[in-house]
């Protein structure tokens, strides 16, 4: 059966929801090696935004693999589909007026660019969590890097599969050198400078 699917348009638009929230809605797309601090930083930024009165939510790469993407592996094709799904999901959150934070390795530039094209101009903010592989390995409490080096984990980014750093991200956070508090403040400052947050309105 070949049924036509139509796109239903809401009577409430993104701008209406932003006005109600008191801030603009964007996706902060955190990318970087495993152990670079994406999840730690994204959850800390979420808490800081929540404390300011913002509507916010983190979509974590590990968490979506328990449900939305549980059948996907770690081949290049499966990674691409995982990123596409998270891109579509986070786009819905942004349209709902929510400051959305995603924490995924998302290793390939082309895949991240495809996601960027899903959004209106200015709604996609790429945040590169920059840390060298030695730093990432030193933080690896799960021992994933060691297993990858022994060949026990295939297609592991940084070891047996490449990571392509962003060429021109909106934000680069050197998580290997900056502490967590400094990193969170850098992101908040960016949001204020780019008029995504208006602290006077949120006060």
Question: How are the SSEs ordered, and which strands pair?
Answer:
Layout: H1 14-21, E1 27-31, H2 38-51, E2 56-60, H3 61-64, H4 76-95, E3 99-103, H5 109-116, E4 124-130, H6 133-138, H7 144-149, E5 171-174, H8 180-193, H9 199-202
Parallel strand pairs: 1-3, 1-4, 2-3, 4-5
Helix pairs in contact: 2-8, 4-5
Write out key terms for the chains shown.
203 residues, alpha/beta, 9 helices, 41% helix, globular
What's the short version?
The chain has helices at residues 14-21, 38-51, 61-64, 76-95, 109-116, 133-138, 144-149, 180-193, 199-202; strands at 27-31, 56-60, 99-103, 124-130, 171-174. With 203 residues, it is of the alpha/beta class.
Explain how this protein is built.
There is one protein chain. With 203 residues, the protein is of the alpha/beta class. 41% of the residues lie in helices and 13% in strands. It is built from nine helices and five strands, in the order αβαβααβαβααβαα. A five-stranded parallel sheet has the order 2-3-1-4-5, with helices on both faces. α2 crosses α8 (180-193) and α4 runs parallel beside α5 (109-116). The longest helix has 20 residues, at 76-95. It is globular and about 55 Å long. The model has no long low-confidence stretch (mean pLDDT 91).
């Amino acid at each position: 059966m070949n049924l036509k699917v139509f796109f239903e348009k809401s009577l409430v638009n993104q701008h209406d929801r932003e006005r109600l929230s008191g801030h603009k809605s964007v996706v902060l797309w955190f990318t970087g090696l495993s152990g670079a601090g994406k999840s730690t930083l994204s959850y800390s930024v979420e808490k800081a935004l929540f404390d300011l009165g913002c509507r916010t939510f983190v979509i974590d790469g590990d968490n979506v693999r328990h449900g939305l993407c549980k059948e996907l592996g770690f081949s290049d094709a499966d990674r691409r589909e995982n990123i596409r799904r998270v891109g579509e999901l986070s786009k819905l959150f942004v349209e709902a007026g929510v400051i959305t934070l995603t924490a995924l390795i998302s290793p390939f530039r082309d895949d991240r660019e495809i996601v960027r094209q899903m959004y209106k101009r200015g709604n996609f903010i790429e945040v590169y969590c920059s840390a060298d592989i030695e730093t990432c390995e030193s933080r690896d409490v799960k021992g994933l890097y060691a297993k990858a080096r022994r060949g026990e984990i295939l297609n592991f980014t940084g070891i047996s599969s490449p990571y392509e750093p962003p060429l021109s991200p909106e934000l680069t956070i050197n998580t290997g050198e900056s502490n967590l508090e400094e990193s969170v403040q850098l992101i908040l400052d960016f949001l204020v400078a780019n008029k995504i947050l208006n602290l006077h309105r949120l006060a």
